[in-house]
């Protein structure tokens, strides 16, 4: 084994520390972060004030932000007084996940308790369980000090009456008698139905700005503590007892301090079959960008269900974030980040309209780029890294939305291994410096970068005109 001089060791460590500091500084420009589904700016602002201005924990911020949405009913799509089931009752589901230890607390089918997210927090902090359901969950919440009250409002009652008058259309029954497409129940199993007819008969669950039932929120503190959570009143006119994706870890939400988090909204009966939030977080763990993680998770579902509607928000531990949607014309989301105020994110177009097969390991110039930017930018301009920089030739795609003159590319290496430079499936980021001192970050997968040394560390700093 070769002997390394102390001076050379100090020099190598200094270079490593400098790169770590550059990486840390770049990341912290984007933290703290509050990111939530839909245009619920008020909920985002409440969470932001708790986290950024009051200096409380990311858990406090998440609970207060989502609770504000539950209390305000967020356009009538979240909380009490919405989405009555077949009996006319509103029930709630909620989840909180702690990214530091994979702990979680959730409730499902919660009856007569308005504070779903607070109930989930009680499960998280005061039990060894992960999920409580139904009347027993309500009893638990009441024991913890929450008040029982009716979740039915005049609006939800009128909605249910109108549905009954319309012969209970739409509903979620298939292969029953009497024909569920023509009249209300009660129903019994049909004896001569065909298995092949199941998907064809399935109710198309349309998701839009005014027709959904969920808030999903990701909160990342300045020091990198990640929490993800959801709250929902479920699908309208659902069969009583139905539980959607929102309280299911990996489906409605998932968080891991090591890599990031994701939250989902949409057709929960389908989404829970694919665990899109978990898929996205695991993609981040493999070194993929947030854009790739979000879109690939949605593509997985759309491959099996062409009429599926849903969306996903993904954030990595450094504060980069992206969204993807399927079966929707647009998907607004709310962001507060760094030292900025909450603002409404872009309305992403339906990626089904684009050939997303070309997306693999491509990057976009901004976390706020549209799906069309993602697709059209792939072949716009391509830089191929030289072997001396990465040990392999890996294409890095620069989207067409980089219209300004790039002064410098600086590679910031992220490593999870004990050796700073040893990455077998790590992530390589490119920090872009513009002439007006603004900066943006895009990501690219880095594979084959192994055993890099001090010389190579110096080489990764280079200028490009």
UniProtKB/TrEMBL annotation:
Per UniProt, the keywords (alphabetical) are:
Autocatalytic cleavage, Disulfide bond, Hydrolase, Protease, Signal
Residues carrying the site annotation Cleavage: 213-214
Q: Residues in the active site?
A: 214 (nucleophile)
Q: List residues traversing the bilayer.
A: none
**Stretch forming the signal peptide:** 1-27
Report the GO molecular function annotations: N4-(beta-N-acetylglucosaminyl)-L-asparaginase activity; peptidase activity
* The EC number(s) this enzyme carries: 3.5.1.26
- What are the binding positions for substrate in this chain? 242-245, 265-268
What reactions does this protein catalyze? Answer: N(4)-(beta-N-acetyl-D-glucosaminyl)-L-asparagine + H2O = N-acetyl-beta-D-glucosaminylamine + L-aspartate + H(+)
Family matches, as InterPro entries: Ntn_hydrolases_N (IPR029055), Peptidase_T2 (IPR000246)
* Pfam families named in the record: Asparaginase_2
Q: Could you state one GO biological process linked to this protein?
A: proteolysis
Q: Which CDD domains match?
A: Glycosylasparaginase (cd04513)
For this record, the Gene Ontology CC terms, alphabetical, are:
lysosome
Belongs to which family? Belongs to the Ntn-hydrolase family.
Which proteins does it associate with, and in what oligomeric form? Answer: Heterotetramer of two alpha and two beta chains arranged as a dimer of alpha/beta heterodimers.
> Tell me, what does this protein do in biology?
Cleaves the GlcNAc-Asn bond which joins oligosaccharides to the peptide of asparagine-linked glycoproteins.
The protein, known as = N(4)-(beta-N-acetylglucosaminyl)-L-asparaginase
Q: List the source organism.
A: Glossina brevipalpis
The lineage is: Eukaryota, Metazoa, Ecdysozoa, Arthropoda, Hexapoda
């Amino acid at each position: 084994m070769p002997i390394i001089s102390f001076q050379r060791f100090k020099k190598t460590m200094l270079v490593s520390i400098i790169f770590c500091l550059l990486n840390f500084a770049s990341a912290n420009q984007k933290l703290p972060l509050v990111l939530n589904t839909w245009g619920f700016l008020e909920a985002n602002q409440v969470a932001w004030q708790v986290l950024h201005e009051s200096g409380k924990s990311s858990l406090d911020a998440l609970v207060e932000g989502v609770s504000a949405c539950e209390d305000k009913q967020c356009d009538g799509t979240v909380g009490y007084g919405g989405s009555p089931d077949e009996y006319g009752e509103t029930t709630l589901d909620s989840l909180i996940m702690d990214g530091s230890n994979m702990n979680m607390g959730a409730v499902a089918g919660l009856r007569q308790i308005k504070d779903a997210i607070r109930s989930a927090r009680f499960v998280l902090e005061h039990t060894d369980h992960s999920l409580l359901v139904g009347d027993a969950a309500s009893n638990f919440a009441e024991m913890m000090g929450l008040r029982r009250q009716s979740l039915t409002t005049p609006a939800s009652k009128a909605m249910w009456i109108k549905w009954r008058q319309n012969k209970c259309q739409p509903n979620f029954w298939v292969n029953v008698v009497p024909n569920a497409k023509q009249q209300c129940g009660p129903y019994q199993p049909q004896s001569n139905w065909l298995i092949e007819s199941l998907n064809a008969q399935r109710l198309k669950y349309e998701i839009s700005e005014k027709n959904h039932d969920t808030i999903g929120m990701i909160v990342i503190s300045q020091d990198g503590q990640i929490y993800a959570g959801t709250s929902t009143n479920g699908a309208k006119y659902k069969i009583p007892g139905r539980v959607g994706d929102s309280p299911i870890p990996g489906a409605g939400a998932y968080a891991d301090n090591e890599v990031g988090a994701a939250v989902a909204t949409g057709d929960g009966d389908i989404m829970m079959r694919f665990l899109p939030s978990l898929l996205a977080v695991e993609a981040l763990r493999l070194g993929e960008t947030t854009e790739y993680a979000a879109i690939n998770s949605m593509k997985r579902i759309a491959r099996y269900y062409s009429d599926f509607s849903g969306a996903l928000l993904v954030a990595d531990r450094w504060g980069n974030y992206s969204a993807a949607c399927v079966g929707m014309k647009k998907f607004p989301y709310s962001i507060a980040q760094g030292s900025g105020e909450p603002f409404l994110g872009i309305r992403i177009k339906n990626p089904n309209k684009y050939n997303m097969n070309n997306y693999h390991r491509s990057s976009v110039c901004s976390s706020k780029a549209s799906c069309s930017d993602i697709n059209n930018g792939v072949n716009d301009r391509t830089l191929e890294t030289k072997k001396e920089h990465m040990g392999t030739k890996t294409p890095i795609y620069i989207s067409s939305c980089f219209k300004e003159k790039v002064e410098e590319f600086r590679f910031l290496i992220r490593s999870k291994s004990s050796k700073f430079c040893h990455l077998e499936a790590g992530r390589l980021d490119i920090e872009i410096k513009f002439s007006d001192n603004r900066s943006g970050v895009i990501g690219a997968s880095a594979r084959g970068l192994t055993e890099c040394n001090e010389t190579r560390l110096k080489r990764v700093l280079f200028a490009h005109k």
